[in-house]
Structures are given as structure tokens and as C-alpha cells.
Amino acid sequence: xxxxxxxxxxxxxxxxxxxxxxxxxxxxxxxxxxxxxxxxxxxxxxxxxxxxxxxxxxxxxxxxxxxxxxxxxxxxxxxxxxxxxxxxxxxxxxxxxxxxxxxxxxxxxxxxxxxxxxxxxxxxxxxxxxxxxxxxxxxxxxxxxxxxxxxxxxxxxxxxxxxxxxxxxxxxxxxxxxxxxxxxxxxxxxxxxxxxxxxxxxxxxxxxxxxxxxxxxxxxxxxxxxxxxxxxxxxxxxxxxxxxxxxxxxxxxxxxxxxxxxxxxxxxxxxxxxxxxxxxxxxxxxxxxxxxxxxxxxxxxxxxxxxxxxxxxxxxxxxxxxxxxxxxxxxxxxxxxxxxxxxxxxxxxxxxxx
Length: 354
Prior knowledge:
Radius of gyration: 21 Å
Number of helices: 11
Shape: globular
Structural class: alpha/beta
Distance between the termini: 12 Å
Largest sheet: 6 strands, antiparallel
Strand content: 15-25%
Order of helices and strands: EEEHEEEEEHEHEHEHEHHEHEHHHE
Helix content: 25-40%
Number of strands: 15
Low-confidence stretches: none
Mean pLDDT: 85
């Protein structure tokens, strides 16, 4: 069978993605599950992270968010049986590519997939749902009555954050990065009853950058600032002016919109805070958390909690609490091109139907 792999760049050459023949061992591990893959999500590959944790191979498996059907279980597997529909995320050190027809995976990385939830939908959105849950529940300790600012709310991750926060009674503000995205986010605002989701303000930043962010947030919060900010990247320097950077807020803007005791959850790996930034955070008794979506599979210290989160995310997708934007599935023969566009940040996500 064939799988998708990454051949790491050498001497500044471009990273290559290739289809390779692979095979599974004849004997299944005691706690392993053999799964026929129905759909696989493609996310950018963090080669630096893999090097940091010691995962170095000539060919690195690609595609880790999988949905499929159990074919066979090891003799000590207790959670699953053949014909169960399952979904999960392969660990960082997995030797299997999620785009193989059949893979072996430890049972502790899988949860049951509700019957009415499509494999393509859950494979495309599972990682974003996990990130949103981690950012808001685990790191920011979200609670009813809090105020949340989501940067780029129309992104797949941003939309998950908005929907999860609204479900828990959180007041949501968000930013839009284009006129089309602004129109989409404005549709989330109308409320017919008290139980309906409430996005109180959509702040356009595609014309003015983040210059209007602070006054609009302070106006909406009565000058108090927000309890939680979830970013999609920040600018560290004012002079950073590439097209994709100007839509991101400056780090000082983020700190300025935080209220007393606020939480800033950032996905910016190389965030640098200067003494004035730290002083302002200190004055507000605010905190900064780094969102690393791989932390759950990189460490087994909280495996039970991780499985609880996965199960809750999947159930919320099934009941319509989380409604991811539909992602058009591509066939396996287009997986290489799709992964190249994802890795170059030309698209946020792709999903392959097998």
C-alpha cells in the first residue's frame, strides 16, 4: 500500500512530499488497533518541533488526523472491537502515514466516532476542535460571563473557538481579515432568543490593520478590556509590513485589550516580550499561555484527559454545537499537491478521502 511522506529539505532546498510504498508488520501489538482509513486531514508539518523532540527520519509520515473503521484489535485492547468507527490523531513519532489504506495505532489515541458524523468532516476539523478546547478550557479557564476576543474568527480554528465559547455563555468579539470574512462573521451575530450564540462585535482589520482594535474593544467592554484573547499570530515589530503580517495585531495591542486578570493564549512560537510589555502584564496581573496543539500526543502524562477532550469535541460536532466549515475532500492522487499548498501556508487545511 502507499502513504504520503515528507523528505526534509537539505541545504535550503524546498521540502518535498512523496508517495511511498509501505507495509504493516504481520503481528499486531497487544494494545494496537488496525484501522482502515476513510479520511485523513492534512495540517502543516512542524519540522522544527520534530527535530526538537528527537524525531529525525529520512522520510517523515504525513497526515495524522484520521477517521476510519476498525479491522482488527490486539489481544489486550479493551476500548474497541472490529467494525467500530473511530477517529483520532496519530502521535508525532508514528511510523504510519495517515494516508495509507490501513494503519496500526495504539488504542489510547482513538475515540469512537458517532454514526451520523461524516469521516471527512471529523478528519478535517478534529485538530481545530482540539486546539479550541485546549486554548479556552485548559489554558484560559473559560467560564460563563467572560469576554473573549478571537483574532481571525472566520478561520477554521477561530470559528471553533467562537462556537465553543458561545455554547458556554461567553461574550465574543472577533476580527475579520477580508470583506468576505466580515460578511460571514456578521451572520453569526443575530440572536433570536436568549439561548442563541452571541457574537457582539466583528472588528474589520483588513483596511486599517489593528489600529482600530483597542478603541473598539474598550468601547464594547466599557473600558474594562477582555478576559481572554486567542490570537492567530502576532507582530513583534511595528515595521513588519508583509501583506499577511499587517492583519495580525501587534503584541502591544493584545496586551492593551486585556482586562485585569486576563489570559492571552498565543500560537506564536517565538514571542518576545520586552520589559515594558511585562510591566503592563504585571500591572494587570495578566498571563500568557502558549498553545501547542501537539502537547497531548507528545506526552502521555495526561492521556486520560486528552481522550476526554477528543470525545467531547467529537460529540459536540455530532450534536451541532461545533459546526466546522465544510472542507472539500480531495482524492489520494491529489494529496501531494494539496499538502504542498498547506505547507506553504497557501491554504489552512486539506482533507483526503480514501
